[in-house]
């Protein structure tokens, strides 16, 4: 069995001393009812797993939309920041960066009114996909060349409760359960000479409030939010309740399938907008919640250790069947992965004998004739350093290989990738995917437009074979 090659986040846990105290307002003790230490531990374990992807999503939102001092800052809400270049080892905004489809990032604030996304017409051979992710990390909308075509169009995104008038010119309406959502656009880049064309397409992605699109009066602006500062130790420890309660403010209509869940969560003070001051809780109850958070983190680590592909991890609420552990695993191993209909990610950080991949050895990844990764759009393989999960510097500045790379097949029709830090020789260099100069690494195989066999798990990536 191959070990997963997705991003892995070290799970920090705060002990009872790592508590977030919110000045003013009522105390957490006034919001905790009917919980015994034993029940509080079980409930906190369940709630921590539920909250983990939301909290890690907030980490990204905080850096990209709220903290203007971070290198990832996109400019606030309802604006795009475009990345119009191939990623290199110097790009460290995200881990395991995609080197096939540069990103356009935005965060939408839908509290006051909907937002309209306008996309340009693109060539029929130009792949792009716009992914929209709610605060739970559900992929609630995916549009682009595969799903909505290559023609220009306007798409409206409405938050919960909106029932206004739809203006002419809107191709489709997407509704979300949460008032803040992430927008991640990927646009295929065909080479360095293609960068001007990429920039022109990216400039055609426009976000406008509905009032600006329809040329009507704008509604009053929403009230300012007192966002909690990002502190990973606190957010993943006992204080996860405070972060969760803040985010649940923007989930105004609890989904019917979660009614019983939130009844249980309420016994330890969880609820949209409720203040949470853990220091006001009796020590046994406070320690019980801390113990539950630790148990949730341990359960997540165990689930990660047995997960080998992205299948079943990303999608809508309906596709994930309210499986909160799957959401948590997805957030820990590859936050913002596309749904399987659009792309599937598999990979390995081990060779065929189960040993870790290291720069000290040479390896091959061989695809037999007729068994290349089955993808209707494209496929690619990328090497990342471990544990950083960034691209590995190499003498030929090559960071991925795939079906658009001019790979050379052998006489028997097979295609072999050479994974090593030095050249395999001039006759094989077209198929050389350089590994890092030192240390461990992993390989991620991306398949866009995956076949039915890939989506069902019937196609498997071949084992990586050590050759010296």
Automatic annotation (TrEMBL):
InterPro entries: DUF1214, DUF1214_C_sf, DUF1254, DUF1254_sf
Coiled-coil residue spans: none
Organism: Teichococcus aerophilus
Matching SUPFAM superfamilies: VPA0735-like
Protein name, UniProt field: DUF1254 domain-containing protein
Residues of the DUF1214 domain: 342-451
Segments forming domain DUF1254: 77-209
Pfam family name, one: DUF1254
PANTHER family xref list: BLL3101 PROTEIN
Superkingdom of origin: Bacteria
Classification of source organism: Bacteria, Pseudomonadati, Pseudomonadota, Alphaproteobacteria, Acetobacterales
